[in-house]
């Protein structure tokens, strides 16, 4: 019952569409083939008749000429008979051509109509089966003669975008070097740090939240940084290159009350 209702509301199912168009296209293709055959036969019959006309016509003309000569014994009459005979053959040949040409034109018109119908049916089928959207999707996500290299295409695109991002970073770095001459050390350092953040972001795939997860390590004794970064909530040991102080951090789940040293440092250094 539900299926019947669904069929009524949801329109014709896909299989029916395919069946219908298979039937239509078969019929149209059959018509085209038949008309093609008729066209060929028409030309062949015309050739055959022309050939017959030439052989039998000239034979008849010669026969009539001979009869005229034997009856009247006069060359002008014989010549006239020949001339009239040849003209009759030419006239008949022209008539034959006209008739067959007329038939040919009719068949060609029918053939054109059938071909237009064929094209129209194909277009309808494509629309009914969403061919164009499917096709464009397939083209977008596949390549190669068997269209099976979809993964590599996607990978290539990803690599290309990564490459572009890195190229941009390289440009930025060059710009940074050019600009840093007129700035204070702190400003230049800040910009460099920001640039490094971007590099790490690109290398980590972009989905990694640098701002929250990557923190600079600051020595808890001398409060100096060495440009070293750690990922928050991971295990690490840091030896300060300035004073030799060693500090370790064990991985802690997020949300615990005891803050890791790096977290404290981050709060302290968030202004820089
Ligand atoms: Zn230190």
TrEMBL record:
Biased composition regions of type Polar residues, renumbered to the chain: 245-261
Sample GO molecular function, one term: zinc ion binding
GO biological process: endoplasmic reticulum tubular network maintenance; endoplasmic reticulum tubular network organization; positive regulation of endoplasmic reticulum tubular network organization
Segments traversing the membrane: 55-72, 78-97
Cell compartment(s), UniProt: Endoplasmic reticulum membrane
GO CC aspect terms: endoplasmic reticulum tubular network; endoplasmic reticulum tubular network membrane
Coiled-coil zones: 152-179
Annotated membrane topology: Multi-pass membrane protein
Annotated stretches, region: Disordered: 245-272
Limits of the Lunapark zinc ribbon domain: 195-246
Record keywords: Coiled coil, Endoplasmic reticulum, Membrane, Metal-binding, Transmembrane, Transmembrane helix, Zinc, Zinc-finger
Main function: Plays a role in determining ER morphology.
Similarity section: Belongs to the lunapark family.
Domain notes: The C4-type zinc finger motif is necessary both for its ER three-way tubular junction localization and formation.
Listed name of the protein: Endoplasmic reticulum junction formation protein lunapark
């Amino acid at each position: 019952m539900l299926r019947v209702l669904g069929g009524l509301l949801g329109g014709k199912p896909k299989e029916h569409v395919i069946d219908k168009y298979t039937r239509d296209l078969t019929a149209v293709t059959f018509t085209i083939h038949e008309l093609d055959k008729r066209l060929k036969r028409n030309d062949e019959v015309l050739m055959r008749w022309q050939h017959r006309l030439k052989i039998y016509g000239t034979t008849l003309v010669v026969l009539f000429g001979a009869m005229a000569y034997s009856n009247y014994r006069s060359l002008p009459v014989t010549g006239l008979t020949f001339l009239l005979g040849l003209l009759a053959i030419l006239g008949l040949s022209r008539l034959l051509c006209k008739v067959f040409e007329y038939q040919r034109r009719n068949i060609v018109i029918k053939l054109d109509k059938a071909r237009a119908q064929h094209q129209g049916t194909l277009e309808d089928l494509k629309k009914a089966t969403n061919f164009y959207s499917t096709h464009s999707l397939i083209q977008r996500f596949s390549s190669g003669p068997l269209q099976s290299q979809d993964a590599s295409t996607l990978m290539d695109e990803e690599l290309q975008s990564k490459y572009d991002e890195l190229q941009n970073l390289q440009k930025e770095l060059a710009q940074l070097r050019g600009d840093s001459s007129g700035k204070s050390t702190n400003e230049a350092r800040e910009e460099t740090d920001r640039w490094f953040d971007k590099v790490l972001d690109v290398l980590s795939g972009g989905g990694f939240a640098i701002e929250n997860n990557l923190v600079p390590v600051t020595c808890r004794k001398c409060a100096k940084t060495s440009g070293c970064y750690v990922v928050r909530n991971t295990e690490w040991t840091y030896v300060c290159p300035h004073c030799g102080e060693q500090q370790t951090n064990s991985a802690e789940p997020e949300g615990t009350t005891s803050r890791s040293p790096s977290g404290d440092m981050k709060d302290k250094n968030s202004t820089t």
